[in-house]
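Exercise 4. Each item below gives a protein and its sequence. For each, produce the structure-token representation.

Item: Inositol-1-monophosphatase (Labedaea rhizosphaerae).
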Amino acid sequence: MRVASSAAELVARVRAEAVAEVDTKSSETDVVTAGDKAAERLVRDELARLRPGEVVLGEEAGASGEPGPGAVCWVVDPIDGTVNYLYGFPWFAVSVAAQVDGVSVAGAVVEPVSGRRWSAVRGQGATLDGAPLHVSAARRLELSLVATGFGYRAERRARQAAAVAKLLPEVRDIRRAGAASLDLCAVAAGWVDGYCEHGLNRWDWAAGALIAEEAGAVVRLPSADAPLGPDAVFVAAPGIADQLHETLLRCGFGEI
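Answer:
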């Protein structure tokens, strides 16, 4: 939490200058700013000081090594929601998680604009600014609010849009805010009832998925044999999890 908070302060402080220096990655819509790079450098430097010798996997600079069995690996998204950051849309965050053997054991997500601090420790629950979190009590899919996100490549976006069009009549409404870590936290808080997105990387979900799980959500992470696809993250309140999963498959989310 200390490291994520320091990075969030930096992200907020340098935004005006950072968004003037923008590069692209997988496509012209997939951006990276000077703020992303500066925040990741800060996180890596702080972790090297506080946890010397431990591996760091970050969105911008990759992995610093290969963790051995039982060793901690830090998974870092210096700005989740970079497009929002670029535009000044205040839904972006710094995400830092500790994983052991690929499983998240602690995570922090900090929002630079609002200052909200989300956290979880495996087996010890999840909190927002120190207050315990719990998922919604939703039980009817047609009255449920569902979040999702879209990829950066036009071909995949078209498939996602078609699937979402089929899903929309089945639920109360859909939200797409543009930062996976915060969408996962929103499930934890009961602000939305479920969430599914394809194409996420480990740094997108490492902290947020643990926060959702510790708040009581059903969580299904990317795996080779997942019905929704090997790169799908699915999170939902228990009362609608099976209904939502089946509906997503019927609407074509498994073919995205």
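Check: The two ends are 34 Å apart (CA to CA).
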